[in-house]
Amino acid sequence: MNTLRSRRFIIMGLLPAMLIYALFVFVPVIWSAYYGFFNWSGIGASSFIGLDNYVEIVHDPIFWRALKNNFIFVGAAVLGQVPLALILAILLSKNNFLQRFLRSAIFLPMVLSTVVIGMIWQYIYHPQIGILNFFLDTLGLESWKLQWLSDGKIAIFALIPPLIWSFVGLYLIIFMSALQNIPGEIHDAAQLDGATGLRKLASISLPMIWGTVQVALVLCISGSLKSFDLVYIMTKGGPAHATELLATYMYNSTFTSYRYGFGSAISTTIVLISLILIGSSQWITSRKPKQ
Amino acid sequence: MKKFTKAALAAAVSVFMLVGCSNQEAANNEGSTGEKVTLTVWHNWTGQDAKSVTMRKLLADFQTAHPEVTLEDEGLPTDGLKTRLRTVAAADEMPDLFVMWPDAMTKEFQKGDLLQPINEFLDSKPEWRDNFIPNALDGYTIDDNIYSVPMNLAPTSFIFYNKLLFDQYKVAIPKTWDELMTAIDTFNKNDIIPIALGNKTNWVAQSTIFSTLADRVTGSDWFLKAVNQDGAKFTDPEFVKALTVLQDLGKAKAFQDGFNGIDETQMMQLYFQGKSAMVIDGGWALANLVSNAPKEVLDNTHITIIPSITGGKGDAGSTAGVVGTGLGISKKLTGAKKDAAMELLYALSGPDGQQATLDSSTLISYNLELDPSKANPLFVELHELMKNVKISPVYDAKLSSAAVEVTNNGLQELLMGGKPEDIAKKIQDAQAKALGK
Amino acid sequence: MNIMRTKKGLFWTLLTGYGIFTLYPFFWLVISAFKTNEDFYSHPFGLPEIWHFDNFSRAWESSKLGTAFMNSMIVSVGSLMITLFIAALASFVLARFQFRLKGWIMTFFVVGMLIPIHSTLVPLFILMKQMSMLNTYWALIFPYTAFALPTAIFVLTAYLSTIPKEIEEAAFIDGTGLWGLFRRIILPISTPALSTVTILSFLHSWNDFSFALVLINKTKLKTLPLGIANFADGYQTDYGLTLAAMTISVIPTILIYLIFQDQVMKGMTAGAVKG
To answer: Where in the cell does this protein reside (chain A) (predicted)?
Structure first.
């Protein structure tokens, strides 16, 4: 192959994506990181304070609470969403009516606005007129009734089902497209074995789409670390910071407490933590033997 | 930050050339060569409620009366407007006029040198200036410069109660704290929620309940001293007592279970469904009640203030409140554009604007008579009540933004069983830090 | 055998139950869109007492949703087109060529997925102002594209890496150049992954509120999420109108999903790539 031509092709191929991305994502990210070294309310004069914002973050108990909550989310997403989506993708691979219906139904929460999803789940968890407590009542399980969103100890866990439920469709569709690449013969052969073949199918399919699983993990970790919308709508990070996340903590500092510099430092911290987590997840998953 | 901006600009321009966009927008900013001027106005009057409709009509009327001015008005939901204003303020790109909140926001914008004082214009119309209620302009005044005037009045704490339920269980409308406790007890025994509360958006308890309750205990003077950290601290026994009173209210089961998990809408919903006997909310709840409550609830709803507290230092006849939003005017305006902006300010917040606002069942910070035949009976009742009620400060209007965050979260914690002393200390620390003391 | 069949039946019944449960919010959205506020407050779960079909027409007219709908279409489709083309090109390079800085470029793209977008609002606003792009469609098209790129590139690169090399070699023997290879072989072969990217990117820009709030301040350029938010004025939300507007806005995303989900599945029914 003509190396000169292919080098030119590499540059021409990467250039548009890199330029647009660098200008509209990377520049603002660096810019915001730069504000993190200032004591700035977002308006008027600012003063350079070096790493003081970061020192304050490390000493702020709310930051550690938020970080812990974020780790709970990452754990739930990595162990809940990804495997669930993978299993569903393998099970729902046929194009008959039922499976098409199920695929669409599972994807549907992705399409709906977070506001609607938040509203629905608030009514599910509502302490007086909520559906969940009503069911527990009818089943005679009164003692299981809880103050789902207002008890500081359980609120963060009560947020996990809506979170998994609304994003599982995202990973489902990513896995569906990856599975299309598996040659039909392998598929047909595995299919013949029927229900017990499920495990076999997984052991054949999984290595073949391992790259996509890694991508899903990256998406999943980054998504959980910056998750904001649903929690902001459902609990606002409360009660008393019980469901505070790094992103809600950042948003409140920036837009509610008028501390723009501090907020920027938090968001830079989020990026750094995510990079470490993703780096280690890549390191772990890339050591798995590929077949 | 200049150097960085330049580097980014250089990068930006080079790509900009590549994609080739048009550059007509920039030329738009000049003006005032002829008589024609364009004014941009950002507001939060987007709804279909009476007040929003009235304000939009005032804008439209101004446009008709002033053909030489082109109004470019844009409505945004309240939270969106606040976020947008913060962003453009960071870039020094304020619109010509915008809805602005008193106290904290006005101070921030003034500190950033973004606002234009209106003293001169205000002084040219003394009959207008002097007709505002006492202290109405304080939240917009910094060092004798006045930056806006309020277009409405927002008392933040009233008890809206369902008379039918009070009569049914033979409960007296509480005038003292003991009577309130008796009422709570009776309603709880009969499976009625005494007071519906939705404190998920955590300013609700602070603004609608605690600000008045604490004022009853500590008195306004103590509070204002503590705000300035001048001779009083939030760790003082009075404040701890105020926190304890609120906590005891929670312990007496005054509020329904799970109140920290539901929002204001769901709180009103409990009241509308007749599940609760009372709800404590600001004057703004009235419009919601009038248009959305079922008829039997609305007809039996009356309004009172939070009862007196024995041994309290505060005025038992006051309720917490803030003057409403005003129009901020950008520092950059000059000449004909500035004159037009002042005219618009007068059209919306001058005597005629205030009258129109009052007629849309909204309380105002301006002395005007209400025509009872035009308004909903409940609004007439509220307006009458306000004649005998003094306004005391609201916590979130006076404290620094950082201390407000701490207070709001602290009250949630308090109602979940946190220790009043610890919470008082956190609030004290946050306020002291914000003032640099 | 019988036990297994019952087990299988039970399993699919449960899964169908889950599917129906998942559909409920959509159902709730649609029926609530026909209610008055009073009805919404008193019976949040019930069917409307009276079906207010006029909620839809009132929502459409009172907030100029028609214009907002068109604006949303323009920016969403615009950024989608750019995203698809440049992401496919970059992914082709990243998946198929060996060069020194590859690992770094992938890392570079990861960073963008990690940042909470709210912290970029102020820098982006200043940037757009200096480029005189504020209040143009480009102010939204470029950020939407830029923020959709990392996911798109990741999904596409992972997909392309699994395609057997023989396909390209065959094309080279035919004398096809790199551009030809990209257009005639790579693009068609990536249909499932491109469809996934289409669905995700479209959803992302169609539902965005934050960028649209800050970067656009001309009423005639407003997008749908802003138009919908106008029904809520802080203290008083008109639920009938809000939910009617949301129902209208969800239709295009459902259509996009239904159309492209078939494309996602195309590879399989066509017997996929012969290995």
So the answer is: Cell membrane
pLDDT value at residue B24: 39
Examine residue B140 and state whether it is found in any structural domain, yes or no.
Answer: yes
Checking if the pLDDT of A203 tops 80, the result is no
Query: What's the structural domain count of chain C?
Result: 2
B272 touching chain A per CB within 8 A: no
What residues make up the domain containing B275? 155-322+381-434
Q: Do C199 and A173 touch (CB under 8 A)?
A: yes
Of B83, B109, B418, the CB nearest to A43: B109
pTM, entire model: 0.87
Q: What is the mean pLDDT of residues B176-203?
A: 94
Residues B164 and B284 grouped into a single domain? yes
Q: Are A270 and C114 in contact (CB under 8 A)?
A: yes
Q: What is the CATH number of the domain that holds B296?
A: 3.40.190.10
Of C184, C199, C222, the position where a domain reaches its end is: C222
Task: State the smallest CA–CA distance between residue B372 and chain A in angstroms.
Answer: 38
B416 and B271, same structural domain? Answer: yes
Residue A194 CA to chain centroid, in angstroms? Answer: 33
Counting the structural domains of chain B, the total is: 2
Write down the domain spans for chain A: 61-284
Domain identity same for B81 and B141: yes
> How many contacts, defined by CB atoms under 8 Å, are there between B and C?
119
User: What is each CA distance from C220 to A244, B30, B53, B98, in whole angstroms?
Assistant: 37, 21, 20, 19
Range of C54's domain?
A: 29-63+231-268
**Complex ipTM value:** 0.87
Q: Do C135 and C194 lie in a common domain?
A: yes
The answer on pLDDT for C88 being more than 60 is: yes
Give the highest mean pLDDT range of A5-9, B21-25, B421-425, C28-32: B421-425
Q: Are residues C46 and C90 in the same domain?
A: no
> Which CATH number applies to A61-284?
1.10.3720.10
Residue B224 lies in a domain: yes
Answer yes or no: is pLDDT of C68 > 70.
yes
Which chains form contacts with chain B, at 3 or more CB pairs under 8 Å? A, C
B144 and B172 co-located in one domain = no
Is a pLDDT exceeding 60 seen at residue B97?
yes
Chain B residues within 8 A of C122 when measuring between CB atoms: 87, 90-91
How much of chain C, in percent, has pLDDT values that exceed 70? 94
